[in-house]
Amino acid sequence: MQLIVDYVSELCAAEGVEQCFDALERAVIRLGFDGVIYSSYLLCSQKEEGASPVLLRSEGFDAAFLKHYVEAGLTDQDFTIKRILQGNVEPIDWWLEDERGILEPQERTVIEIARHDYGLHNGISIPTLSDKEEIAGASLVSNDKEPGFRKLLDEHFQVLRNLVRLFHDRIYADPVCRKTMMLAHLSDLSEKERKILEFLATGRPLKNIDGKDITPAYANKLLGGLSQRLGATNRQQLRYLLGLYRIHDLWAS
Questions:
Q1: Which CATH number is 226's domain given?
Q2: Which of 144, 179, 214 delimits the end of a domain?
Q3: Cβ neighbour number for residue 17 with a 10 Å cutoff
Q4: Is residue 135 in a domain?
Q5: What is the 3-state secondary structure (H, E, C) of the chain?
Q6: 158 and 219 assigned to the same domain
Q7: Any idea which UniProt keywords this protein has (predicted)?
Q8: Is residue 72 part of a domain?
Q9: In terms of domains, do 166 and 100 share one?
Q10: Which of 42, 120, 136, 245 supports an S-S bond with 179, CB 3.0-4.6 Å?
Q11: What is each CA distance from 232 to 51, 66, 153, 239, in whole angstroms?
């Protein structure tokens, strides 16, 4: 299929996450879908607020719905995220799940809002990662009603799944893309949190941190929460992650 050939060529030539996602967007639109969103969440070891999610949205995925989704805290009601957290990485057809009668009322609310308030009549989520540190996946939406959407899936489901898988593997194999993703996860850090992580990345002991703005005791207090938010089980792993993605260089740029 020429679409696959073109897509692989574009992924190989892409520089950075945005260009890779642009290639995915063009490919899924050629298949007949209207929009796509890719999401990545770092997981906490405890029930505390995690790092900022990475959300890559195409123009055809309604920005107003995404804003509603985030501001209303619909993540907690999203059955697709619950499935991925349980280790289920099989594709999830939103309304087919409802037809099976397995959704709780609050879970059904999420897709009802998408359909009735924002015109996203159908959607399918394709998980790409589920482990103790991170979950990720893409959701494709269509404004087509039944049976048009069902025909679209019947004809292109396997190709669609491969497109998403190739995108995920491409950005996770590329150090530059991974740095960009990690920086996005760190976007809501305070200035003091950022300074502590920058100092930790130097490998020097925290007792040598500048005590004028941040004392060693205060730095130690914040580091526990930072490790949990970024999916690190201990300080050594956190230092490894910071060095691996050269976070200091990204902030400096």
A1: 1.10.10
A2: 179
A3: 22
A4: yes
A5: CHHHHHHHHHHHHCCCHHHHHHHHHHHHHHHCCCEEEEEEEECCCCCCCCCCCEEEECCCCCHHHHHHHHHCCHHHHCHHHHHHHCCCCCCEEHHHHHHCCCCCHHHHHHHHHHHHHHCCCEEEEEEEEECCCEEEEEEEEECCCCCHHHHHHHHHHHHHHHHHHHHHHHHHHCHHHHHHHHHHHCCCCCHHHHHHHHHHHCCCCHHHCCCCCCCHHHHHHHHHHHHHHCCCCCHHHHHHHHHHCCHHHHHHC
A6: no
A7: DNA-binding, Transcription, Transcription regulation
A8: yes
A9: yes
A10: 245
A11: 11, 28, 38, 9
Q: Is residue 67 part of a domain?
A: yes
pLDDT in tens, the chain (253 residues): 799 999 999 999 999 999 999 999 999 999 999 999 999 987 754 344 445 688 999 999 999 999 999 899 898 899 999 999 999 999 999 999 999 999 999 999 999 999 999 999 999 999 999 987 789 999 999 998 888 899 999 999 999 999 999 999 999 999 888 878 877 777 777 888 888 888 887 778 888 887 677 888 888 888 877 777 776 777 777 777 777 666 666 555 5
Same domain? For 168 and 206 the reply is no
Q: Locate tokens 């925290």: which residue?
A: 206
Average pLDDT across the chain, whole number: 87
**Residue span of the structural domain in which 242 resides:** 189-252
Q: Same domain for 12 and 102? A: yes
Share of the chain above pLDDT 70, in %: 91
Task: Give yes or no for a contact between 166 and 8, defined as CB atoms under 8 angstroms apart.
Answer: yes
- What total number of domains does the chain contain? 2
Last residue of a domain, one of 118, 151, 179: 179
Q: How many angstroms separate the CA atoms of 225 and 19, rounded?
A: 33
What distance, in Å, lies between the first and last C-alpha atoms of the chain? 40
